[in-house]
Amino acid sequence: MRLLLNLLWFVLGGLVMGLGWALAGILCAITVVGLPWARSCFVLARFSLWPFGREAISRRELTGRADLGTGPLGLVGNGLWFLLAGWWLAMGHLGSALACFITIIGIPFGIQHIKLALIALAPVGMTVVPKP
Predict the structure, then answer these.
(1) φ and ψ of 10, to 5 deg
(2) What are 109-127's pLDDT values in tens digits?
(3) pTM of the predicted model, to two decimals?
(4) How many Å apart are CA 93 and CA 117, to the nearest integer?
(5) In angstroms, rounded to a whole number, what is the distance separating the alpha carbons of residues 86 and 35?
């Protein structure tokens, strides 16, 4: 079932948004200052391409301890991210969600786009893990 959902997702907005995340990652990687965000972008680009069967959670929640991305520095990083790239990725996911909500079959995909839009606002400190 996950494979079928992921294939449908890929066609119904996943490819476009995955490429958007990858483009954001490439732009961040071009600058040395943007390297911490580039890693998050590439992890979330892969997640945006094939989201079913996996979920994005905070690394603090996963490991039980804080690190650079989940502490105060991560908060500053997410603030900068939001101003520079997060808002347009979130808008892309929201636009894709609205397009998916037109049909009954697209509702689960629209919900997934909304989840990804929320992640796009603050991706630093997040990691993707398989769902149990």
Answers:
(1) -55, -40
(2) 899 999 999 999 988 888 8
(3) 0.85
(4) 5
(5) 15
